[in-house]
Amino acid sequence: MRVLVCVKRVPAPGSRINISPDQLNVDTAHLGFTTSPHEECALEEAAQIIEQHGGTVTVLTAGPTEAEEQLRYAASVGGTDFVLIPNNSGGDWDPERTANAITQAINKLEAEDGQFDLIMFGNESADAGGFQVGVRVAVALDRPIVNGIKGIEINDRVFTARREVDTGVEVYQLEAPAVLGVREGINLPRYPTMKGRLASKKAEIAIAPIEVHAGGQNKVRLHRPEERVTETNVLGESAAAAARVVDLLDELGVL
Amino acid sequence: MMGEILVFVEHDQGQLSPSAGEALTAARELGERLSQKTAAVLVGQAAEGLGTMCAEYGVQLAYCLTSPVLSDYGPETWGQAIVELANQCSPSVILSVGTDRGNEVLAQVAARLGAPFAANSTVVQRGDAWEITRVQWGGSLLEDIVVDSELLIASYNHHSIEPAFFPGDNEIEVRTVGVELDPTLGRTVIRDRVTLTEGVTLSTASVVVSGGRGVGSADGFAQLEELADLLGGRVGCSRAVTNNGWRSHADQVGQTGTRIAPEIYIACGISGAIQHWVGAMASKNILAINTDREANMVTKAGYAVIADLHEVIPAVIEEVKRRRS
Predict the structure, then answer these.
(1) Chain B partners of A174 at a C-beta cutoff of 8 Å?
(2) Is the pLDDT score of A220 beyond 90?
(3) Within an 8 Å CB–CB cutoff, is residue B165 touching chain A?
(4) Is A126 on the interface with B (CB under 8 A)?
(5) What is the mean pLDDT of residues A95-105?
(6) Tens digits of per-residue pLDDT, A118-131?
């Protein structure tokens, strides 16, 4: 099985996200970086798939040179091949441009080494949250895609994919070659082992420069939503507050 | 002359989705502001009877798209069906609410039309170009963008519009439009469904009793379950809880879990990290039960009890039972 996982390097914020002075990016001066959570799960899923079925997991990212850190991390948790599409513009590309670059990179990788049976994206990135790059790539490649996937079973060349909805589960069946947008909760990602850490050091990262035009979505500025200033009404400091809690439930009509 | 505003109105097997009111309200409001006609888009024959319900929100035209491959939901068939309609009526705007399906279908539409897509918008304005404000980081930040396209494809951030019925005797014209779709797109239509929850769900519950790291163990949730049951609500949890394997991820409230908007959110032993807060912030009221008065969840909550949740919850359960007996 040839699997491709697309990941994004994102800041790992604490309890507040600050904005850079030019208002175009998150101020990352005091922040670490991580792999966007849904994608970390996609990577884990891919690692489990090749453990069961054999094959390779190619991990692809579009980002700054520093995104090599996320590819090396991927090597420590099951990735086998690594590709970086450099974007050193100092900010994210817009979603159309990102999708276009990834599509071109996939076409190139497939021309060299054969088609990917499964391509996985995260449902959406933790930061920009555009909800579209995976869909755009799948449409450009004319492959089926379903988002929000929290379970994958493989039978021959058919992927049975489960999506949680409010009342239960929707089941989809996609034939390879297919694309899936994966959600956190599909698995619990592993931590790197000692062997993984060694693999991460040795991993070779292919650099794939790609020329792409900007899409139609232009960022003007980032800002903070108006913060609701809340006066917290403390109902008590012991179990004796129960009566006031139930008064409140009664007032709100939920008792 | 600009074309009309199309709004994708969600349903599941003919059952109007809870987000439909938000979609129709947002579209009608935008239509009034831009002096454009607004039309609801219902996909599949199962939706044919839903026109009257759309009328209650003041929308006067609905297109019901039909084809043999539109029997049940499929992101590609539904997306392409809307593309076919757009090719016929040249709309100026295609809107949805940013639910799973709302974003998935409009991403398909945008990809197929080669147009930009602004997901989870909070403000839509037309100046010299489309000026949009949309959420980033699940709602912790906002991004102003300019969309360089005649056709605007955008979803409204879920729970950011208050659905409003339109007063008066509303009439709606429902136009059934047969669309020709490539049957191979049926490859992503739902094959099967498993119903796990009947009735109230996490995202529709009026009461959500949620636990964080402070609950201490999987067993610690029994008290929260009991209170939620008593109030006809549901149990939620934070990401720390699912990472510890105490609850299923289906119960997780937050940016990577479920976004909720209950009448009251009872947050027990939850510190309130950003990723959790953005899933809970649409709650009408928040009661935080926490030993730490400085916890983010406590300072953002309208109501708080500063005490051990394992003492407070049983006392609340007893009090509810006492008043009902």
Answers:
(1) 187-188
(2) yes
(3) no
(4) yes
(5) 98
(6) 999 999 999 999 99
User: In angstroms, rounded to a whole number, what is the distance separating the alpha carbons of residues B96 and B26?
Assistant: 9
Encoded amino acid at A167, one letter: T
Decide: A109 and A56 in contact? Cβ < 8 Å.
no
Average pLDDT of chain B?
A: 95
The position carrying tokens 């850079």 is A20
DSSP assigned state of B14: T
Taking residues B91-107, report their average pLDDT.
98
Query: Residue B264: its chain A contacts at CB < 8 A?
Result: 248-249, 252, 254
Beta-carbon count within 10 A of A252 CB? 16
CA distance A195 to chain B (A): 24
R_g (Cα) of chain A, nearest Å:
21
Query: Among residues B19, B63, B16, B57, which one has the least CA distance to residue B39?
Result: B63
Give me the interface pTM, i.e. the ipTM.
0.95
Q: Is pLDDT above 90 for B230?
A: yes
How far apart are the C-alpha atoms of B228 and A159, rounded to whole Å?
Answer: 37
Domains of chain B: 5-188 (3.40.50.620), 207-324 (3.40.50.1220)
What superfamily in CATH does domain A2-227 come from? Answer: HUPs (3.40.50.620)
Report the distance separating Cα B80 and Cα B75, nearest Å.
8
Q: Which residues of B touch A224 (CB under 8 A)?
A: 140-142
Q: Tell me whether residues B103 and A224 touch, CB distance under 8 A.
A: no
When CB atoms are compared, the residue of A175, A221, A252 closest to B263 is A252
Distance from CA of A143 to the nearest CA of B (A): 10
Min distance A204 CA to chain B CA atoms (Å): 31
Chain A: residue whose CA lies nearest to B185 = A144
Q: Chain centroid to CA A97: how far?
A: 17
Distance from C-alpha of B104 to C-alpha of B190, rounded to nearest angstrom: 14
The 3-state secondary structure of chain B reads CCCCEEEECCEECCEECCCHHHHHHHHHHHHHHHCCCEEEEEECHHHHHHHHHHHCCCCCEEEEEECHHHCCCCHHHHHHHHHHHHHHHCCCEEEEECCHHHHHHHHHHHHHHCCCCEEEEEEEEECCCEEEEEEEHHHCEEEEEEECCCCEEEEECCCCCCCCCCCCCCCCEEEEEECCCCHHHHHHCCCEEEECCCCCCCCCCCEEEEECHHHCCCCCHHHHHHHHHHCCCEEEECHHHHHCCCCCHHHEECCCCECCCCCEEEEECCCCCHHHHHHHCCCCEEEEEECCCCCHHHHHCCEEEECCHHHHHHHHHHHHHHHHC
Q: How confident is the model at residue B1 (pLDDT cuts 50, 70, 90)?
A: very low
For β-strands B192-195 and A168-175, DSSP reports them as antiparallel
Determine the residue among A93, A102, A139 to mutate to test chain B binding: the one whose Cβ has the most chain B Cβ atoms within 10 Å. A139
